[in-house]
Amino acid sequence: MRRGPARLLLIVALPFALGAAKPRLVPDVSENRIEIQYSFTGADLLLFGAILYPGGRVPTEQADIAVVVKGPLQPLVVREKKKVAGIWMNVESTRFRSAPSFYAVASSRPLGQLVDERAAAIYELGLQNLQLSPGPGQPADVQRRFEAGFVDLMQRRHVYVEDPHGVQITDGVLYRGRVTIPAQVPVGNYTAETFLIKDGRVIAGAVRDIRIEKRGFERFVAKAAVRWSLVYGLVAVALSLLFGWGAAVFFRRG
After folding, report:
1. 153 vs 138, more confident
2. For position 52, what pLDDT does the model report?
3. Residue 209 shares a structural domain with residue 228
4. Which residues of 24-39 are buried (b: 16+ CB within 10 A; e: fewer)?
5. What is the residue-averaged pLDDT of the chain?
6. Alpha carbons 157 and 50: distance in angstroms, whole number
7. Residue 94 belongs to a domain
8. If residue 121 lies in a helix (H) or strand (E), which one and from where to where?
9. Which of 37, 73, 184, 210 lies 20 to 30 angstroms, CA to CA, from 44?
10. Is residue 115 part of a domain?
């Protein structure tokens, strides 16, 4: 009878003990704030950190790392063009409620060798597992065609990227991965996610926030376009007319 409470205490404490025995990630990024100025041509973002194993014992079978950088979600419309009577026209379109404006994933091995399909879908690991939230009203096959076309377009713009060998792990503990931020990315809040993967499952994860914002004259122009949209539009039209008139005068004299 005296052993009952002790056994009960052991059963209650067991899940906490097992949770404490899991490895933990300690991640960081080289820059948590990226400033876009007139001379901005892109940035190389370094994601690095350490894997902390219980008791400091590194297992003989090394785990893998995948890092994912995501940009702000945005709604958008994708249109499909076809040639009709010799003229390219928009014939079909679909709406995505929330698509990341930037997505880059780097891993220590190809993702197909690291995670099963279920885990890849849950954590959105890989371009084929992005949850783009298409709008209603389109058949499934049409949605898949538009999703594939959209992802291909974003890849050609270098804002959707996969690097299957972009992460290096040293001594099973230290890791580092590199992601290139192109010049045409939008401003906003980004996330850098790190996943520790073993036996096809994600066993640990961590997130760091990144802010990309405009500075200097670019920031002033962006704010003016939002705060004083009417004045901004009138000034833009006036400048266009002025430059057009100046070009006409110049070539007339020439």
Report:
1. 153
2. 94
3. no
4. ebebebeeeebbbeee
5. 81
6. 32
7. yes
8. helix 117-122
9. 73
10. yes
